[in-house]
C-alpha cells in the first residue's frame, strides 16, 4: 500500500519502508520474494494512477492545482516542470531511470501521462525501474538484518549525531520546499 501511495504522488519514503520490509523478511515475518513482488506491483498501480491523472488533466490545470495545493504535500510546480524537462530531454527511458531517483520517482508518471507516452512502454519501464529499486532496498534490509547486531555498536557511537543530522536534513528539505512554494 505504501508503494501505491508513493507512486500516486504522495511522497512516502520507500527507502525506510522497503528496507524495514527486507529486515522483516530476514526475521521470517515476511517472504522476501513476496515483498519485492507486491511492492513492485503497488508501485506500478500507483504509477498508473498518476499516469492517468496526467493524461486526463491538461498541463495548465495541473500547474494551477500544484501552485494552489502542492504546498500541502510539498510538491511544487517546479518539481513538475523539472520532471517534464527530464522527460522531454531523455525520452521514454527517463521513466526507468526516474524510478531509481528519490523524489523524481514519485512524480515521473505525471509528465508521462500528459505527454501521452504509450501505455505499454510506460508500464514496462515503470515496472523494470521499480523492480530494480525495490529489490535493492528490500535485499539491503534483508542483509542488514543479519548484520544488525554487528552494526549496532557503530550506530550507538554515532546515534545522537545521526539523529541530529537526520532531523536537520528533514528540516532543510521542508524549509527548502516551503521557500519554493512561498516565492512562487
Q: Describe it for me?
A:
The chain has 184 residues and is an all-alpha fold. It has two domains: 2-146, no CATH class; 149-184. It is 80% helix and 0% strand. The protein has ten helices and no strands. Helix 2 (14-26) crosses helix 9 (119-146) and helix 3 runs antiparallel to helix 9. The longest helix has 35 residues, at 148-182. The radius of gyration is 18 Å and the shape is globular. The two termini are 32 Å apart.
Summarize the structure.
This protein has 184 residues and is mainly alpha-helical. The chain has helices at 2-7, 14-26, 32-56, 59-69, 77-90, 94-98, 104-107, 109-114, 119-146, 148-182. It has 10 helices and no strands.
Radius of gyration: 18 Å
Biggest beta sheet summary:
none
| Total tally of structural domains | 2
Q: What is the rounded distance between the termini?
A: 32 Å
N-to-C order of helices and strands: HHHHHHHHHH
DSSP strand tally? 0
What oligomeric state do these chains adopt?
single chain
**Count of helical segments?**
10
Helix content: over 70%
Mean pLDDT value: 79
Proportion of strand residues: under 5%
Q: Give the low-pLDDT segments.
A: none
Please state the structural category.
Answer: mainly alpha
Features:
184 residues; mainly alpha; 0% strand; globular
Structural topology:
Elements: H1 2-7, H2 14-26, H3 32-56, H4 59-69, H5 77-90, H6 94-98, H7 104-107, H8 109-114, H9 119-146, H10 148-182
Helix pairs in contact: 2-9, 3-9
Amino acid at each position: 500500500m505504501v508503494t501505491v501511495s508513493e507512486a500516486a504522488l504522495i511522497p512516502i519514503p520507500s527507502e525506510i519502508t522497503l528496507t524495514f520490509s527486507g529486515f522483516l523478511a530476514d526475521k521470517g515475518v515476511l517472504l522476501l520474494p513476496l515483498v519485492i513482488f507486491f511492492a513492485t506491483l503497488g508501485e506500478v498501480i500507483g504509477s498508473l494512477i498518476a499516469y492517468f491523472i496526467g493524461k486526463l488533466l491538461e498541463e495548465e490545470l495541473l500547474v494551477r492545482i500544484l501552485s494552489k495545493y502542492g504546498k500541502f504535500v510539498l510538491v511544487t510546480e517546479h518539481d513538475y516542470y523539472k520532471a517534464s524537462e527530464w522527460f522531454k530531454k531523455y525520452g521514454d527511458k527517463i521513466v526507468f531511470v526516474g524510478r531509481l531517483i528519490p523524489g523524481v520517482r514519485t512524480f515521473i508518471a505525471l509528465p508521462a501521462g500528459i505527454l501521452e507516452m504509450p501505455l505499454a512502454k510506460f508500464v514496462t519501464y515503470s515496472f523494470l525501474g521499480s523492480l530494480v529499486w525495490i529489490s535493492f532496498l528490500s535485499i539491503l534490509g534483508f542483509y542488514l538484518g543479519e548484520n544488525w547486531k554487528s552494526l549496532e555498536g557503530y550506530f550507538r557511537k554515532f546515534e545522537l549525531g545521526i539523529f541530529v543530522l537526520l532531523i536537520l536534513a528533514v528540516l532543510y528539505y521542508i524549509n527548502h520546499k516551503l521557500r519554493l512554494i512561498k516565492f512562487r
